[in-house]
Hints:
By secondary structure, the protein is mainly α. It has helices at residues 3-15, 20-29, 34-46, 52-67, 71-80, 85-93, 97-114, 120-133, 138-151.
Amino acid sequence: MDLVALAKMQKYCAYQERCQKEVRSKLIALKVYGDDLEEIMAELISSGFLNEGRFAEAYARGKFKNNKWGMQKIRRELKWRNISAYDIDHALASIPEDVYHACLRKLLRAKYQSLRIDDPWQKKQRTVRYAQNKGYELPLILTLMSDLEANEPS
């Protein structure tokens, strides 16, 4: 086993949570292949430097709090990183539903009020599209959007 590469990967994983896909890419960039790569991966997992469940929770929490991403976008990004469905579901369940709804409500209100469009239908469409691009679910967007429009002064 390449001890220099192992030490580099331990430092890399200790800095922030990583997924196996990121670590494999980094090892390949360091020109570590085959059995050495697999041994390093096994050592990182067994020593607790690499944990997919922990990564998924940290990723979901960070993208929701900092980037205001919805669950669909977080799920898609975690799937792209080859995270298991169990870990994805567990990570998304860690986001409280009331906080999730409040965040979407705030996003919708801010976007709706920032648009300088006279046509209310077009204003609503752009706001809904914005929330969908952030990864929020359409039925939830439409429910909260109708609440927003009902409370909007004419």
